[in-house]
Write a structure and sequence with these properties.
Elements lengths: L1 H7 L5 E8 L5 H7 L5 E8 L2 H10 L5 E8 L5 H6 L5 E6 L9
Parallel strand pairs: 1-2, 2-3, 3-4
Length: 102
């Protein structure tokens, strides 16, 4: 997936990733190839702080970051520090059985 992003989306400015979990996906590799984006939306039933941190560390130009999560994510001082410069930062906890559309 990251190779396709790098090759065909050089001017990509916003990205929405949605799914069940990031299990077996190289998040750091994906984040490296989308580091110039301005807006990122992550919507996952199971996402962990480390997954979110990979994107926030790589994507230094974010103006907007929205996270929808079901389980796993825990806000902590590292995440607060990483989002401190993002103008539009929102987090929503999902009802895992009713709010996802697959």
């Amino acid at each position: 997936m990251a190779v396709e992003l790098q090759r065909s989306c050089r001017s990509l400015r916003q990205l929405k990733l949605k799914g069940y979990t990031f299990y077996d996906i190289d998040i750091a590799h994906i984040a490296k190839h989308v580091k110039g984006i301005k807006a990122l939306v992550l919507e996952f039933l199971y996402i962990y702080k480390e997954d979110v941190a990979h994107f926030l560390k790589a994507c230094k130009e974010l103006d907007s970051f929205i996270l929808f999560y079901g389980e796993g994510f825990k806000m902590d001082p590292e995440i607060l520090w990483l989002v401190s410069g993002i103008r539009d930062f929102r987090i929503f906890k999902l009802d895992c059985y009713n709010n996802m559309s697959y």
